[in-house]
Write a structure and sequence with these properties.
The complex is a heterodimer of chains A (95) and B (486). Chain A has 95 residues and is mainly alpha-helical. Chain A contains 3 helices and 2 strands, in the order αααββ. In chain A, 16% of the residues are buried. Helices cover 39% and strands 13% of the residues of chain B. Chain B has an 11-stranded mixed β-sheet with strand order 1-3-2-4-6-5-10-11-9-7-8, with helices on both faces. Chain B has a domain of 286 residues: Amidase signature (AS) domain (Amidase signature (AS) enzymes), CATH 3.90.1300.10. The chains are: A mainly alpha (95), B alpha/beta (486).
């Protein structure tokens, strides 16, 4: 069972801020969903390999050639704040 | 019949005979949009000026006697999680409300090469997370068959746009049923191709091992034409597969004699609406009468597909959505005191409820101490689910099932309970876990609402799906019915 403290910890990991009402409802809803997930525990998977990808593709290589790339201007066009050729953010450290 | 009501191949014939121009077709579509869009709300963005320009280019080519591609001059709608250079691509999220991609997805470049015309960008559940399009941050989309009901989701805008004749065909994306479920609820043809058949480059990632782009069309022939246009290896997507190029229209044959079709019994017992069951049973009879060998089979791990999916998809989503932090693009809270505060505030304001829930769930199952019990366990069960399909395809050419447990539901009835909403996808999401192709075609009507059937094949067997679907379509009339919008 997930409790409110777990929800607060996971929110911190996911960089989300939740109000009290959201914490309550997510605690309940995540428990509902995880209760479904419990059904998987009844399956014996000791000798089963995990599938992360369905196709047997491995090590996709290509020639290391210079291609066409976006200009600085294009790359920066969607940034919320810029200065010169840089993206601007608030201070990193509060010290 | 008006131009906007026609299919790709009908319009292509008219264009090559010079009986109509692409400009006329395009104008007919936009005129119709003006009449019905206030009721349907399928689109987030319309690209009329650009569309008319492209139409004129195509018309000039035709006038010069040049040969045109099957999609030349054909108005197509694009789900708004597929990047379109210079045209806002929002994922129906506040966090990407102002995002203008500096590049186009490979599928967009392929459509442009054919001379297809983009009508606009269609509505979806935020970041494709949902089954009703009610999770859009901008507006809800109505089902053209009954405006009080959802069009399905997450590609609800694309499905509704095709059903309401607000475009000739559309592209969507399918992570757990997001093409097949709305196609079924809107009475259209929809295909989720094999994982790796269509490049995902430029599709904004939800769950990368499950996501696949595919078409919505008015009939099976158009589905083959759209698939021809978008499939193929792409060096920009390392999970796209190198294969010999096929012309999918060669499979449009009216013949299922000797075809072995399996009916997974687990798909006919779970909470299936009685009207839907009747329609599926009639479809099975139809295939039998047409000469297919139909037999009951079993997909024993069916009940585990939903929990497996709802561990794997949110895990991948939580990782993919970590990139939205307000630095390089997307929404930023400008009042934040430092950079950590900016990440948290930008994400908390920018993401909607369902997206936050899945980030929370995914982060939890990947977090230290829970990884093995949830995520790794799910990946192992995924192997069992995939083997289940592999074994069935040693015996059967295709599997046939319902697409959804019920026809389209009313707004709001499932919105409060996430698990209830997730159950909408109970017949579709195992297909993404196995990576196989799945296709929806209209199979009947229950109280005036369309009901679809789903055909499943082994990896890269889209051709056989198309042939079975085409045969069913040639021997039924369901695909000819159109909604009356009022």
């Amino acid at each position: 069972m997930i409790n409110k403290k777990d929800v607060e910890h996971v929110a911190l990991l996911g960089r989300l801020e939740l109000n009290e009402a959201e914490k309550e409802i997510y605690t309940q809803q995540l428990n509902d969903i995880l209760k479904y997930a419990e059904t998987l525990q009844s399956l014996d998977t000791a000798d089963i390999a995990p599938t992360a990808h369905v196709l047997p593709i491995k090590n996709v290589f290509r020639e290391d050639l210079v291609g066409q790339h976006l200009s600085n201007k294009q790359v920066l066009a969607n940034a919320p704040d810029t200065e010169g050729n840089f993206i601007k953010v608030p201070k990193i450290s509060s010290q | 019949m008006s131009l906007h009501q026609m299919t790709i191949y009908e319009l292509h014939t008219l264009l090559t005979k010079k009986e109509v121009s692409s400009e006329e077709i395009t104008k007919s579509v936009y005129k119709h949009i003006e009449q019905v869009e206030t009721k349907i709300k399928a689109y987030i963005t319309l690209t009329k000026a650009q569309a008319l320009e492209t139409a004129q280019v195509v018309d000039k080519k035709i006038a010069n006697g040049e040969k045109i591609a099957p999609l030349s001059g054909i108005p197509v709608a694009i789900k708004d999680n597929i990047c379109t250079k210079g045209v806002q691509t929002t994922c129906a999220s506040k966090i990407l409300a102002n995002f203008v991609p500096p590049y186009s997805a490979t599928v967009i470049r392929k459509l442009a090469t054919q001379g297809a015309i983009m009508v606009g960008k269609t509505n979806l559940d935020e970041f494709a997370m949902g089954s009703s399009t009610e999770n859009s941050s901008f507006h809800v989309t109505s089902n053209p068959w009954d405006l009080t009901r959802v069009p399905g989701g997450s590609s609800g805008g694309s499905a509704a746009a095709v059903a309401a004749d607000e475009c000739i065909a559309a592209l969507g994306s399918d992570t757990g049923g997001s093409i097949r479920q709305p196609a079924a609820l809107c009475g259209m043809v929809g295909m989720k191709p094999t994982y790796g058949e269509v490049s995902r480059y430029g599709l904004i990632a939800f769950a990368s091992s499950l996501d696949q782009i595919g078409p919505f069309t008015k009939d099976v022939t158009d589905c083959a034409l759209m698939l021809n246009a978008i499939c193929g290896h792409d060096r920009l997507d390392s999970t796209s597969v190198q294969r010999e190029r096929r012309d999918y229209t060669q499979y449009l044959k009216n013949d299922v004699r000797g075809l072995k079709i399996g009916i997974p019994k687990e798909y006919l017992t779970q909470d299936l609406d009685s009207a839907v069951r009747k329609i599926i049973e009639e479809a099975i009879d139809k295939f039998t009468k047409l000469g297919a060998e139909v037999e009951e089979t079993s997909l024993a791990y069916t009940e585990y597909a939903l929990p497996t999916y709802y561990l794997i998809a949110p895990a991948e989503a939580s990782s993919n959505l970590a990139r939205y932090e307000g630095v390089r693009y997307g929404y930023r809270d400008m009042e934040a005191s430092d950079v950590q505060d900016m990440f948290v505030k930008s994400r908390s304001t920018g993401f909607g409820d369902e997206v936050k829930r899945r980030i929370m769930l995914g982060t939890y199952v990947l977090s230290s101490g829970y990884y093995d019990a949830y995520y790794l366990k799910a990946l192992k069960v995924r192997t069992l689910i995939k083997q289940d399909f592999d074994q069935n395809f040693q015996k059967y050419d295709l599997l046939l099932s319902p697409v959804t447990p019920t026809p389209a539901f009313k707004f709001g009835v499932k919105a409060a309970n996430p698990v209830q909403m997730y159950l909408q996808d109970i017949f579709t999401l195992a297909i993404n876990l196995a990576g196989i192709p799945g296709m929806t075609i209209p199979a009947g009507f229950a109280n005036g609402l369309p009901v679809g059937l789903q055909l499943l094949g082994k990896h890269f067997d889209e051709g056989r799906l198309l042939q079975a679907a085409y045969t069913f379509e040639q021997n039924t009339e369901f695909h000819r019915r159109r909604p009356v919008i009022n």
